[in-house]
Write a structure and sequence with these properties.
mainly alpha
Length: 237
């Protein structure tokens, strides 16, 4: 059976989604690839993260050819994780596509239903209300705890600030002064490392809040500044 699948794949000039499923199953089969057969969710977890960031790089550089390639690599990782669950009888890739289609239809009642939403703000408000009802995250604490802890720290802090509306009633000037005060309070000598780390965390959190108030993406801002630093160092060896 596996030989027939391989022969069929080798005869093709163009492949589709079902062919990707077949490739995955062949790789995980008894006579497939030893490396692929050894993997589990945890061993390929970092691959998923890496491929996601490579997709982001392709987007940022506006490289269509690279984006096509990296989206394929990311899709393969998704297929891999779905195949691992399929082998356990938990779910398969069809269940994944079924669930996301149902979710998108449910979250867009202004398109697939009779709800009125003519602006982006209305769409986002409806989305959040539907999500809250679906997940039963009724309290602010529930919503904040649902923000993935493994997100990049600046991105996670920004999401917490936005969800909790921490900066809504605080002026830019007040946040700027708070940042200055917290930097001034940073212990340089005579304090243990835990105290310094705690104060640095407060400084970074306030910086993220100031970014939020000024409508600056903290994660992207630091990324671009780091890129500039790399180029500056590289151009002056």
């Amino acid at each position: 059976m596996e030989n027939e699948k391989i022969s069929c794949l080798l005869e093709k000039e163009k492949y589709d989604f079902e062919d990707l499923r077949t490739v995955m199953k062949v790789l995980r089969s008894e006579n497939g690839c030893p490396w692929d057969r050894e993997q589990d969710h945890h061993s390929i977890r970092s691959n998923l993260i890496e491929e996601t960031y490579e997709v982001v790089e392709a987007i940022d550089t506006e490289n269509a050819a690279l984006l096509r390639e990296e989206l394929g690599d990311l899709l393969f990782q998704i297929m891999f994780h779905a195949e691992l669950e399929d082998e356990k009888g938990s779910f398969d890739i069809d269940d994944v596509t079924d669930e996301i289609c149902k979710k998108m239809i449910s979250r867009h009642p202004h398109v697939f239903g009779n709800v009125e939403a003519e602006t982006t703000a209305q769409v986002l408000k409806n989305w959040d209300a539907i999500k809250t009802e679906e997940k039963q995250r009724l309290s602010l604490g529930d919503k904040l705890r649902a923000i993935p802890p493994m997100l990049p720290s600046l991105m996670r802090a920004a999401k917490v600030n936005k969800k909790a509306k921490i900066c809504e009633d605080v002026s830019t000037a007040a946040l700027r002064q708070r940042l200055i005060d917290e930097v001034s309070a940073l212990p340089v000598e005579g304090e243990d490392n835990a105290s310094r780390a705690s104060q640095m965390g407060a400084i970074l959190l306030t910086a993220v809040q100031l970014c939020e108030k000024m409508q600056v993406d903290a994660e992207e801002s630091l990324q671009h500044t780091t890129d500039d630093l790399i180029e500056k160092i590289a151009s002056n060896p």
